[in-house]
Every structure is written in C-alpha cells, then in structure tokens.
Amino acid sequence: MHVIVTGGSSGIGLAVAKAYAARGERVSLIARDAARLDQAVLDVQAVSKGGSTFAVSADVSKHEDLAFAVKACETANGPCDVLIASAGIVEPAAFDALSAAAFDQQISTNLLGTANAARAVYHSMKARGQGTIMVVSSGAALIGLHGYAAYCASKSALKGFAEAIQAEAVGTGIRVSICFPPDTLTPQYQREMTMRPWQAEVLMGKVKPWTAEAIAQRIIAGIDRKRSKIHFTPSLMALAYLGPFIKPLLSLWYRSRLKRGARETHARSSTVHLKTGISSGIDTPKL
Question: Ketoreductase domain location, by residue (predicted)?
Fold first, then answer.
C-alpha cells in the first residue's frame, strides 16, 4: 500500500507516516522545507519494516507544484492508495491585527492546499475504483475562536469540502474521511502557544495537548475501520453533533467570563497604580 502524506516533515503528518512505515507500507512525504524533509525521511526509514520511503518538496497551495510532486511520488512508489492531507499552518491574531497576507496564507495552505492534494490523486483513484482520502481538519472547525478567524474559516470550510466530495465519491470506490484533532504537541503548536490570545484560552481551557503519535494512531484506526469522521474527545464530538444547541449557551458563558476577566484586569491595574503611582497593563488575566 502506498501512503502519501502532505505536511509530512513534522507533527501529525510525520507521525502518521512513521506509523504506516512501521507497518511495512510504502510512504511518500510532501512538505515545503527540504531540509526538514531530509530529516523526516531518516526518521521514517528508522522505523520502516521494509516499505520504501520517498520525499519531495512542494508548496501545497500551488496546484501545479503539488500535482508534479504527487506524480513524482507515484512514479517512485506506485499509485496512491491513501492520501493524508495534513499540511496546515496557524497564525493566531485578532482579525483587525492580522495582515491580509497572513490571513490569505492560512486559507491557501489549509483549504486550497487540501483541495489541491485531493485533486492530484482523485482521478487516478477513480479510474482504479479504490482509494482513501483523509482530510485533517481541526477541533477549531467546530466553533469560532478569538484570534483564529482565518484558521477557523479554513478548517470549517474543510468540513463542507469533505462532505461534498464524499457525496461525489459515492459509487466510485473512493472513501473520503475527515478528522478533527484537538491541540496536538507539535513544533507548530509550541509556536502557536506564544501567540494564543487569552480570550481564546477562556473558551478552549488549559487542556494537556495530545501527542502527535496518539493522534496518528487514531487516524489510522479510523481509516482501517472506514470511518467517515473522526472525533477525538467527548467535547469535540458534542460540538460536532449538538453544536446548534450547545453553542448559544456556550456563547453566553463565554461573554460572562470575558466581562469577569475585564473587571479583574481593571482591578489589578488600579491596584498597581495605587501602590506604585504608575499604571500597568495586564494582557492575560488569570481566569
């Protein structure tokens, strides 16, 4: 079996690639950073049980580049049996503070990059009457978060995209699935946490992130069981299926917590002013 993974140089993508390689499958990695890809190939080969490993650098947001990369993968390892579309980026910032370029890049990579990857393998899979496409979305697809306008938009759009091509794939032999991972301990997550607004943390809570390996195992198990959707926690499953009933109440609770946070911020600032004669801004109230 040949598995192609976009975003395969790190994080969830690399963890999925290593897990498949450990099963003896042929694995191809696609990512932008050639140096990180070289290291990823060594990591995959270190756990491989005999399957070949191939890697090629490409920007998933550029259709022609990605199509060429997928063709190279299939030349090296044969037709794609499983596509893991996991390339993605996140750049937290309030909408009015986020540059247009940063907004567009998240949409291009997360949404268009996934569509480009699916398009690159779809025709071949349809002609052969078999294949699996796994869309890696996010728990952020299920609810809007402060500071994540571009990311939430791109990841929630993937839900509609996956459902649409699931409908189109009926009778073709192609299985299209989507998963919604929670916070996952990856290099990107570590960078994201330095920029995550406190308002987002109010809603998301301070929950220990999953390991990329645990996410990868759940994704592969879902593919093996032919699941159309994979939710990783009870809370995300509740948002997915009961969102219209839960989110209005959650919104009321969130607004009250923000008001409380604003009051605590003001109180702390006033206390500092009285004690030191200077004002002090507090960015992250302890809620």
Answer: 1-184
Quote the domain boundaries for residue 261: 244-287
Per the annotation, the verdict on 151 as an active-site residue is yes
- d(Cα 145, Cα 37) in Å, to the nearest integer? 32
77 and 39, same structural domain? yes
Question: Is this model's pTM higher than 0.85 or not?
Answer: yes
| C-beta of residue 50 within 8 angstroms of C-beta of residue 26 | no
C-alpha 40/C-alpha 52 separation (Å) is 13
Per DSSP, what are the bridge partners of residue 54?
A: 28
Given 10, 48, 86, 137, the catalytic residue: 137
Q: Is the separation of the CB atoms in 7 and 207 below 8 Å?
A: no
Domain boundary at 212, 232, 252, which?
A: 232
Q: Catalytic annotation on 247?
A: no
> Which tokens in the block code for residue 121?
């393998």
Q: Are residues 131 and 214 in the same domain?
A: yes
Residue 87, domain member (yes or no): yes
pLDDT per position as a tens digit, 14-64: 999 999 999 999 999 999 999 999 999 999 999 999 999 999 999 999 999
Is residue 137 among the annotated active site residues? yes
The catalytically annotated residue of 18, 148, 154, 155 is 155
Residue 23 lies in a domain: yes
Q: Which residues pair with 31 in a beta bridge?
A: 57
Return the number of other C-beta atoms located less than 10 Å from residue 144's C-beta.
14
Choose, from 9, 48, 151, 154, the residue flagged as catalytic: 151
8 A C-beta contact, residue 210 and residue 232: yes
